[in-house]
Amino acid sequence: GSSGKEGKGWKRFQSYKGEAALPKEIDNLRIFVDRKAQTIILPVHGFAVPFHISTIKNASKSDEGDFTYLRINFQTPGQLAGKKEDTPFEDPDATFIRSVTYRSPDGHRFDTVCKQITDLKKEVNKREQQKKEMAD
Amino acid sequence: MTTQFDKIYHGIAQEVGKFRVAASGMAWKGEESEGVIALPSGDIKWAQWLRVARNFQLRIDMKDRRRETFDGFAREDHDKLAGLMKQHFGVTLEVRDVSFKGWNWGVTDFQGQDLAFLVSNKTSFELPLRQVANSNIAGRTEVSLEFAPSSSGKKPSRSAPDEMVEIRFYVPGTHARQRGSDA
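Predict the joint structure of the above. Result:
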């Protein structure tokens, strides 16, 4: 059914209305955290791909040799006992991006990016929680 | 008559160059390497225009299935380029819609040598399948693609772009279809 979706905490969100709203910083093909738009923009083979913070579960980093790896995990249905009803979309056959991993020789920068994502996630969660409490 | 566009990138490389359009064809020349990418008029098949990270991309498909992309065009260059494509090569500059919704769900579509990810029928990104080094299917509903590092051997500079090394998809739709077959 489609009526249960809202109750699962999924609501419609959108990062940008059009290309003109994209921040300038994406042109160096690096991950950019746009706090104002509550969005992480990932460079994918030349494309600038925004992901709203609501789609993101967490971010973690690890160091291996000359490189630092940053992994971003996304919210997907099927993570909790594979329940299809969690799908936040009309199309139950949609394909979800579950995770992406990037590498950089600049570990310090990935430290910062990882922290920015984690902080933004916390901030949004906190606000959502407050909203819920106000509604109760 | 030749029309020139400055500060244009070829492919996903970081070098800027000059892009020239004339009746005989198009060419990009790198500022540092002096490398030249030539697109003779008779070989040009399609031209597309889409928003990418480095502003707008002109994408040219050639008759021998070669594809060249040039990033760094301004939004205002569209009309000028569309006119030049039409006038010199009889080709329409197609505008390709790109999604900026920020969603992580959509539809995957194999388009030639690319795997495209579409959100609400608009392209979100494309992955060149030739650069996939390894792929894995786990638990029937998860597909991972690993990409070979572009910089072979030597350590890239700190200003290098971030490199995606792996992407994992969750494909719930395949579960029902594959049930009962252990293929």
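Chain A touches chain B through 60 residues (CB under 8 Å).
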